[in-house]
Amino acid sequence: MSGTLYLVATPIGNLEDMTFRAVRTLKEVDLIAAEDTRNSIKLLNHFEINTPMTSYHEFNKVDKAVTLIEKLKAGESIAVITDAGTPGISDPGEVLVQMCYEEGIEVTSVPGPAAVITAVTMSGQACRRFAFEAFLPREKKERRQILEEIKNETRTLVIYEAPHHLIGTLKELADVLGEDRGITLCRELTKKHEEKEKTTIGGALLSYETKEPRGEYVLVIAGKSRNEVIEEARAAFEEMTIEEHMNMYLSQGMDKKDAMKAVAKDRGVSKRDIYNALL
User: How far apart (Å, rounded) are the C-alpha atoms in residues 127 and 134?
Assistant: First the structure.
């Protein structure tokens, strides 16, 4: 019978956030696959966990996963941990989980800290709906494509960023989303010097003219206003004549009645207004 893969969340800064279940699981499994064994040994020693460890990180996530799968198929239970937070969220884990499903191996998660959830809930931004982008791509073309894709996103956006890239990223966000877009910058989450700064993108850039970015950042960015999206769409349609607008829908196979209804909706007016304009 195959073993079980456990995705075990570990503290993102404060060791008191380690759960009882996480400690018990790490003590009971046969092997712990850690992103950095040198870092994780401090955590294991603190909680008196003596389970053997092996490295599992970004650069061996495919080859090492094959080895771990064989151990799981042989009946061993394995826990995956990262340097901080939940495995699979901007950290190794996703590939191994997919391979476990392909092999019919049981996978479960031992929930706990995650920087994205911690930041969103304390940000003061809307948190009913949010889109998690993690770290933006470093390749310029792909990065620009992603930024253009999120330009009209109405959900709250969450981005991770390193201190040495923070100012450059804020400048790009200002260029694409506008300096007036709301943002909360969170750093040193759960640690003694935790900071949250709720401002605008432009305000954040002004703030960092006089101080140096330190620590890992989570940027929680307000989504675009739905009213603004609607107004921009209407403005784009109003650049067309009503006849051109009608022909756009007629050429798609709509009948005249439905086309008039669609044009009226696009422009935020009544169908009678469109009818009278066409007359």
Answer: 16
